[in-house]
Amino acid sequence: MTNSTRERSLCTRRFNIGFKQSIPIGYNWGIARGVTSALACLPDGLRERLTETQENRDKFQELYESVNLLSATDALKLFHDDILTKKAVEQSGSTEASVSVGGAQEHISNSSSLGTYSTKLQSLLLESPEIKVQFFHQEASTPDRC
């Protein structure tokens, strides 16, 4: 194998690894964006039937607004930061890491920044049994229903 062939092979492997890492997070972020957008577009009466309390409707609206403020470029940056954080945590062997991102020192826990959107949505869906959503769980590598 020539150096050029090895380099291409290594690049391909790295790309495939990155792609596999992005699937569950991107899928679940898209689900959070889509579900909250769909709920925001529904007439009030239908939204009230799907989400029983005003508090839950307000939480769905807040999640909708925060998800839609995040551009695809910002989401990609968050995903990159999450990977760097995970790598730092794995190297340090601790559950939390202090990572320098964009020149600023940020204290980041082991959870994914993008993952918080789907986590919040899953929490809200537990209180709204009329809404059925399928999430992607990385451990099983298949979508799960919530």
TrEMBL record:
Q: Name the domain of life.
A: Eukaryota
Family matches, as InterPro entries: Yae1-like (IPR038881)
- The name of this protein is Uncharacterized protein
- What organism does the record attribute this protein to? Gossypium darwinii (Darwin's cotton)
Q: Where is the organism placed in the taxonomic lineage, from the top? A: Eukaryota, Viridiplantae, Streptophyta, Embryophyta, Tracheophyta
